[in-house]
Every structure is written in C-alpha cells, then in structure tokens.
Amino acid sequence: MGQPLEGKVAVVAGATRGAGRGIAVQLGAAGATVYATGRTTRAGGSPMGRAETIEETAELVTAAGGHGIAVQVDHLDPAQVKNLAERVAREQDGRLDVLVNDIWGGDPLTRWDVPFYEHPLEDGLRLHETAVHTHIITSWHLVPLMVARGGGLVVEITDGDSLDYRGSFFYDLAKVSVMRLAVAQAKELSGHGVTALSLTPGFLRSEAMLDHFGVTEDDWRAGTAKDPHFIASETPAYVGRAVAALAADPEVARWSGQALSSWRLAKEYGFRDTDGTRPDWGRYMEEVVLGGQEPGDGRR
C-alpha cells in the first residue's frame, strides 16, 4: 500500500509483543515514526516473564520501512508517561498523529476457572490498574499534543466489539472499560479534530499463544489438535494493518466512538493477513462457536 504515513508520528503504548508489536510494525511499514513503549528491555524484564523486548520491536519497525524508537515506560507511573510525552514533543516538534493504547499486563492476574468472589481480590484490582488505569494515564499525558495541533487518532485496543460477557469478571470489566474509554474520549475530543475508537483483534496468534499451543508461526495449524477454533486465528499483523488503514484514512472521524474489529476493517479497507487470507473471527464465532457448525478455516 506504499507509505501513506510517511512523516506521521505514532506512539504504541504496550508494543513489546502481541498486538502492540504487530501494530507498531505495520505503522512502520506504512512509513510512520513509531515510539514503541513497554517495560521489557534487553537490560531487564518485567513481571510478564517474556523474552520479547521493545528494542526488538523498534528494530522490526525500522526494517519494515519506518523509524522505530524504543522507550522503556511503565505506564502506571505518571512521571514516566509525562517524560514520554515531553520527549515526543521535543523530538517531533510537538507532533503526534496516532496514539495506540495497548497496555495490558493482565495475563498472570486473570483467573478463568472461579467465580468473581473466589478470584483473588488483590489480583483483580491490580488487573484494572494495569489494563485500564494505564490507558487513562497515557491518554491524559499524550492526547494534549494532538489537541494542540487540531488532529489525531486514539486507538484503544480491547477484546471484543460488544458487551457480551468475556468469561471472567475482572477481565470482562477491564475490556469493557477500555471500550468505554474510547466512547468518552470521542465525545470530549470531537471538537478538536481528534478521533477516538476501540479496536479488537480476533483469536490472536501472539507469541504467547503460539507458545501455549507448542507451535511456531510456520506450523501453527498443528495447534488445532488442542483447540479446533485455533484454525480461525489471525496474526498480530492483521490488527496492525487495521490500525495503519485507519491512520491513513482522511475520513477516519466517521468511526469515532465506535467499537471496531480487525475482520470488519479488513472488509472495509481491503487488507489481508500475512498469508493472504482474511480471517473473520466474528463470523466464525457466530456460525461455529455459538452456532454449532463444523469448524471451517474462518479464513476466506
């Protein structure tokens, strides 16, 4: 698609791995300068205990055709986020075109096998700090750069595009809260030329998910032996291409406040996943998971 974002500046908060990394790389492929933030660096890890680093993400952004800049940030620390905003303003002459809030950190805090009153309360409350408070803090410090220039795009990454229950009390509240953050920001920013929306991937074939199924990206279909629905999964690049398409759309304001999905935007903008297919997790969920049809590949 060329480089429609050449000269644009983006911050992807939570870009160490998964959707955040996929989004950062695809913004880079479209020509953007991308600040990739997170806690895990080559010098030290985070409570997530994963090997991926923000330096690797920044290098992938540059290799894709953009300019990647790794910045270690704990997005629960307002001082660190303030320093990030000041650095972007200083280095980019006040310019920020795209902010992606993809901070999560909730995997080790989420329980799927117990009712909420048996879920460790400390973990549940901490999850909301890492998955919701971080988004608020980040927007609070960085959105003013967009307001000052009269334009920009805020993308809140969540899980799901509806209010359907997500299987775990604290997890559900966190993901719906992120959707509501997009609605609230859209309302308050509408007069400043800034668009805010939420976006969900489908069954994400992240690094952690590949590890969970004991597969690599090259042989990922073997993971269907554990879960047949894995056949409908998508790479992080898919949601990344969704964000890049939104950022390049001169009429992106028409989406403001909406809860969007990678599969919906793939149809709207005409992009595909890295294997040339177009996964549609929404259709697959309706027809197979809920409708009882035999699993297809979900990848038209």
TrEMBL record:
Q: Name one Pfam family in it.
A: adh_short
Alphabetical list of NCBIfam families matching this protein? PRK08303.1 (NF006159)
* UniProt-recorded name of the protein: SDR family oxidoreductase
